[in-house]
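User: Could you check the structure of this?
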Amino acid sequence: MSNQEQHTQRSSNGDALLFARNFFRHPRMLGSIVPSSRFLIKQLLQPIDWQRAGVIVEYGPGVGTITAELLRHMRADATLIAIEMNPDFVAYLKRTIADPRLQVVEGSAVDVAEILRHCGQTRADYIISGIPFSTIDAPLRERILRNTHDALQSRGAFLVYQFSSRVFQDLKRIFAYVGRGFQPLNVLPAHLFICSTG
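Assistant: Sure, the predicted structure tokens are below.
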């Protein structure tokens, strides 16, 4: 095994350990004990038009599994704003991903409009979320979804993955269009939703 492969293996192991440790500390904040699979990430990000994606927001990036894939595809002049409540993950992302397109913000998805303004943006082309909506109190869930709707560009999309389909009715009530998908090759199998404002 090469030095690069050993480094990648150690980094991957470190990601998984950090993720698992925080799952046991904050089980309601994380949907799963392990990061998302490559199958889930590919299906989740498939709807993105990378040429149009100037501003992307990610809710709950965790150890950056999806974050890294977003950065791999994004335009050189695009911006990714990762909103994370867990200070361990915030510190980890800032330490391990050195990309000027990434802005990591410690905060809540409910404040997405304020965070966008703070980062010099007005609206997002895409918002990605894996935060477990089924464990969030209904009033806060409603505010997050409505604020997300209002933070999107007119042709923007909200891309969601969940380990329960319970949020579907909330999404249908708030967004003009909601498409559904399913990815079995993940721990846990995941429901996917693509939501647009019009």
